Amino acid sequence: MDLGIKGRRALVCASSKGLGRACAAALAAEGVHVTMTARGAEALAQAAAALRLAYPDVEILEVAGDITTPEGREAALKACPEPDILVNNAGGPPPGDFRNWSRADWIKALDANMLTPIELIKATVDTMIARKFGRIVNITSAAVKAPIDVLGLSNGARTGLTGFVAGLSRKTVRHNVTINALLPGPFDTDRLRGVSAGQAKASGVPVEQILQTRMNENPAGRFGDPEEFGLACAFLCGARSGYITGQNILLDGGAFPGTL
């Protein structure tokens, strides 16, 4: 399927690894010029080089920096000042017990997973409206739909973003600017393995056993492949997806047990 976005420009945050990288790759495959950001300069350079090799006809820019800081956002927007597509993404806060979290912990989580996406939307949405085309995809978490007790910081911050977008997305769609969220369940990423390692340490159970148990408990019997996630993101960014807005789409192998 031709998604009709060849030649468009995208800013994809936290895209050196995992789901962000998969989104950048899927967009590049559609002929989109991609600006990638990440904190780790070495991993980002390797990811960008791989995309340039795979898709020589598109421009791949890289901006090393922390997108959750004003300086990081300024650098990213300087490299890609008027994106047609914005993919918001940032690493999730650590798991734990809310009794141990300070105000600073909460502010850090809100900055990364709620306020940073809002700041980037604020910086880009008006030019999208002026051009009558814009696609914004927020990578959040299945925890928005079904909270995970040890991920309270993520539950709170990402749900706050979801509530904000619910209102804004109904205003921008008239101008062919959509805002949606993709809610990943267990995908085979460093994040999943890091959380599992923490659970293994706390429980004394080998991490391999925890991973296998988690796969077995999923209706699909496996973890998601990041490529699957990237393709879903690219579809939402397509020219023909303008009637989809304000939606929170689960990609979890059927783990959520509800009807709706």
CATH topology of the largest domain: Rossmann fold
Order of helices and strands: EHEHEHEHEHEHHHE
The major pleated sheet works out as:
7 strands, parallel
CATH class of the largest domain: Alpha Beta
- Poorly predicted parts: none
Helix content: 40-55%
Query: How many structurally independent domains?
Result: 2
How would you characterize the overall build of this protein?
It is a single chain. This protein is α/β, with parallel strands linked by helices and 260 residues long. It has 2 domains: 7-186 and 224-249, Rossmann fold; 187-222. It contains 8 helices and 7 strands, in the order E-H-E-H-E-H-E-H-E-H-E-H-H-H-E. Helix 4 runs parallel beside helix 5. 42% of the residues are buried. Belongs to the short-chain dehydrogenases/reductases (SDR) family.
Question: What would the keywords be for this entry?
Answer:
Rossmann fold, SDR, globular, single chain, alpha/beta, 8 helices, 260 residues, NAD(P)-bd_dom_sf, SDR_fam, 3-oxoacyl-[acyl-carrier protein] reductase, seven-stranded parallel beta sheet
